């Protein structure tokens, strides 16, 4: 039984992974942007690296093709002090200053400050630059220009470490399934943030008994992940490091419930070795990138 599951999900996982060229392009673009900010605020590239990747690139949960790269760039504390002496929306002013600094290096590149980031739109990928100030705790202050402006404390390292720990515990399956579920979100226009979906799946796998198993179990992984999502509607998720509580709402619930219903049917077909029928069901969730047959 389940003759098609292993190969179907092995190939699906491979298709979700970035190509070497996409990885190289993302890293090179991010490094160039980081060096540009360093020249503006340190004179030359800093002796100690000031930038590092966060978000899906920091957690290695990027889905192919990648949409954007989130880049933290640490600024000197005297910059924070300088902006704190200003009136008005200090955070918006900081983002505009960083945008202007980047414009020296990239005068022909479309960019804009937007809420918490400076967006640098290259032809191949978007780099989202987050200027931050490191605290003695290892956490960071980042600007949020929304609602008049304020500083927000974040801890991306704690989030990355949480994903690393659970991914190791699950033999790499957390990252693989996260990419698959992101494709579902992309294909079905699910109104849930990628960041929130990552948190939910990490929470799910942290206590999932089958987590370390092979591709042979991936039909159950997907089914049970959707079941978990459905159970979390209108609940909350807690951000590691800062313990920020994020309300989940339920605008996405109908899509998750539909995907769960389809996954249940797909699992039944997999059990009966009706491989093509199972593939037809999985494609209703993930689109044609998941193989119809093994």
TrEMBL record:
<dbReference type="InterPro" id="IPR043519">
    <property type="entry name" value="NT_sf"/>
</dbReference>
<keyword id="KW-0051">Antiviral defense</keyword>
<dbReference type="InterPro" id="IPR006116">
    <property type="entry name" value="NT_2-5OAS_ClassI-CCAase"/>
</dbReference>
<dbReference type="Pfam" id="PF18144">
    <property type="entry name" value="SMODS"/>
</dbReference>
<dbReference type="GO" id="GO:0051607">
    <property type="term" value="P:defense response to virus"/>
</dbReference>
<keyword id="KW-0808">Transferase</keyword>
<protein>
    <submittedName>
        <fullName>Nucleotidyltransferase</fullName>
    </submittedName>
</protein>
<dbReference type="GO" id="GO:0016779">
    <property type="term" value="F:nucleotidyltransferase activity"/>
</dbReference>
């Amino acid at each position: 039984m389940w003759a098609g599951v292993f190969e179907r999900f092995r190939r699906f996982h491979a298709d979700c992974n970035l190509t070497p060229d996409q990885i190289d392009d993302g890293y090179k673009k991010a490094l160039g942007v980081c060096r540009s900010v360093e020249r503006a605020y340190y004179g030359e590239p800093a002796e100690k690296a000031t930038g590092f990747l966060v978000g899906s690139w920091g957690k290695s949960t990027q889905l192919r093709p990648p949409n954007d790269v989130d880049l933290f760039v640490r600024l000197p504390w005297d910059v924070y002090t300088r902006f704190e002496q200003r009136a008005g929306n200090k955070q918006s002013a900081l983002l505009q200053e960083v945008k202007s600094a980047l414009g020296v290096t990239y005068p022909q590149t479309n960019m804009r400050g937007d809420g918490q980031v400076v967006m640098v739109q290259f032809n191949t990928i978007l780099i989202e630059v987050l200027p931050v100030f490191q605290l003695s705790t290892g956490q960071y202050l980042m600007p949020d220009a929304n609602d008049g402006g304020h500083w927000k404390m974040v801890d991306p390292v704690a989030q990355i470490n949480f994903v690393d720990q659970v991914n190791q515990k699950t033999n790499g399956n957390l990252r693989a399934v996260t990419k698959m579920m992101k494709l579902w979100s992309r294909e079905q226009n699910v109104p849930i943030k990628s960041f929130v979906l990552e948190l939910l799946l990490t929470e799910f796998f942290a206590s999932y008994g089958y987590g370390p198993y092979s591709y042979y179990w991936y039909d159950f992984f997907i089914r049970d992940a959707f079941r978990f999502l459905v159970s979390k509607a209108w609940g909350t998720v807690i951000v590691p490091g800062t313990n920020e509580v994020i309300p989940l709402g339920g605008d996405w619930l109908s899509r998750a419930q539909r995907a769960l219903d389809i996954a249940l049917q797909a699992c039944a077909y997999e059990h009966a070795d009706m491989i093509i029928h199972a593939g037809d069901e999985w494609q209703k969730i993930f689109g044609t990138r998941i193989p119809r047959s093994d």
